[in-house]
Amino acid sequence: MATIQDIGVAAAIYLLSAFIFFLAFAILRLQPLNDRFYFPKWYLMDLRSTPSRSGAFVRKFVNLDFRSYLRFLNWMPEAVKMPEPELVNHAGLDSVVYLRIYLIGLKIFVPIALLALAVLAPVNYTNKTLQSRLKSITSSDIDKLSISNIPLGSDRFWTHIAMAYAFTFWTCYVLQKEYETVASMRLLFLASERRRPDQFTVLVRNVPPDPDESVSESVEHFFLVNHPDNYLTHQVVYNANKLAKLVEKRKSKLNWLDYYQLKFSRNNAKRPFMKTGFLGLWGKRVDAIDDYISEIEKLSKEIAEERERVTKGPESIMSAAFVSFKSRWGAAVCAQTQQSRNPTLWLTEWAPEPCDVYWQNLAIPYVSLAVRRLIMAVAFVFLTLFFMIPIASVQALASIEGLERAAPFLKPLIEIKFVKSVIQGFLPGIVLKLFLSFLPTILMIMSKFEGCTSLSSLERRAATRYYLFNFVNVFLGSIIAGTALEQLKSFIKQSANEIPKTIGVAIALKATFFITYIMVDGWAGIAAEILMLKPLILYHLKSFFFVKTEEDRKEAMNRGSLGFNTGEPRIQLYFLLGLVYASVTPILLPFIIVYFGLAYVVFCHQYESAAAFWPDVHGRIITALVISQVTLIGLLSTKRAAQSTPVLITLSVLTIWFHYRFCKARYEPSFVRYPLQEAMMKDTLERAMEPNLNLKPYLQNAYVHPDFKGDEDWKEEFNLRLQENGSVLVPTRRQSRRNTPVPSSISGASSSSSPDAIPEHSEP
Q: What is the band of 608 on the pLDDT scale with cuts at 50, 70, 90?
């Protein structure tokens, strides 16, 4: 097992690596070539221009002002001190609330750590239980600071129970105050938000078929009858997935045409050629520019034919529609009430923002969604169980003893003191991290198959599964599988009535593994994220090969989102570890605090569903709190302290009661419903400021599928490219080929948030 010295060596190495990442970031962000990438918001708002460096040629690419490197950490206080209202305007409410999760971690764990290290650590350390009574258990110096070092039946366990109550009350207090703050921020944000199509629009699903009316006619008739004073317009949903694939294929061809035209502009004496075979490795040799122009023209004809088929064919019309109203109040009434006496028909929900719609899943029949969710639930169970096998193997091998058993020839090398410290501090966490690297992609595919209709709901669904997976495999799997394999010899030699006692002690002994995991995944992982190396490399590749206009450059500057589907579950795992081990092994808490501090500084620098994910965050922290209490009950029951069980059960009941009575019932409605009072106030204010406002042109085509965009803009854009098929590039007036202001890597298709880019037909 790792000693305190081993953990100290690993901690020093990880902190040094974090410092190196911060230093590398400071160097990269000072280079003129990277300025647009690291400060994209300022360029998009025209508040910053490309740095101009006069003098030597190298100054255009490298910052030679060495005094600026001496201030390489100045960005930290600037990022942390940014006022919250300014941060909301700059990054949006979602980013601000996401940052507050890290602040909650610091608010909860700093006082808990101080109290636990001052009270529990001395209580645990001043015993000799692990040395005298359980010599068959594999333990380390760190385990002497844990509850495992308390003798059976000791009155000292009442100290741990008292601390569990203190930790619970403090955590609940912080959560209640934070829930109240975020709920107020959300309502204030909604009240001050600019006009958007989703504020007036509802998504209607499971429209019943009518032999005498089309879907469009049924929707119009139903809402004119049942919402006569508020209904404005609607847009039926089409199955345009084939059309989307053709548009995406044409977009790819256009990117390659850009590349070869740019290549030709740099060397006018030589036309670019390519081979038509697989990956351009073999096949007929053709003129690249002429070939791509021909392919694009062919695809354009196919797209026009497919668009015509979809808009005029009744088989492409789904039993769903986006219905827009004359006021926010009318939309709120419709979205939050039952529309039909049959509760399975005319189902309504708030429409996502146009740029947040996941158009592919709108083509899924509503009746098949339940079956899809059942299939994915079963698949997720099997996925979780499958991953238990490699995790159990990791726990068996990621130790000095396990490596020596698996590879005896490495024993002389492993026994070297420094190598031993590095292995114990690095190997377990790194191997587990590698196993988990493919998981987010798998979970996102599962969420897409389930039928989520917005990109934000896709991320929230994937985040929920990632959290459950982390709990079962990373937390429970690492404890149970690791314990069973590590203590196997001890189990064989013990009598049956001694096995529960050994398991209870060994659970506490896994703190060493989680400390190494926190350093690998938390400290080094978060510090590495500030570099954003993958997006930075992609930015420079796009800039070199595809950027021809200022709009293309803005498109290349997009760095993606915060990655809620992977980031939030990771935060929740650290909340779980901190709360579980606060009363068991408090030495783990400083490592949790360092993680939250680093993460807050990093994400302060990197910056909308209006923080709709907050109830999930709060609920998972409460779940972690209850799990910590149940774990303590199990531990104490193996320590002949069963009389403490009713006291701790009472604590769990109080925690759950607090969650439902003071948080969920009081604040959660603000996150799932839009208050009619707020809607009416905003409508009244808008009518007073704009008495002649006509919403119909604004809303009529806001939710048209983005690939129904007419060909006029495309033809103008493509004709300009034909003009560029010469020796000189000419400036273009075209807009970026993406329709959405914040394109997503999830959808594979763009979405229009503006009603300006519309097809000719909004209804069949």
A: very low
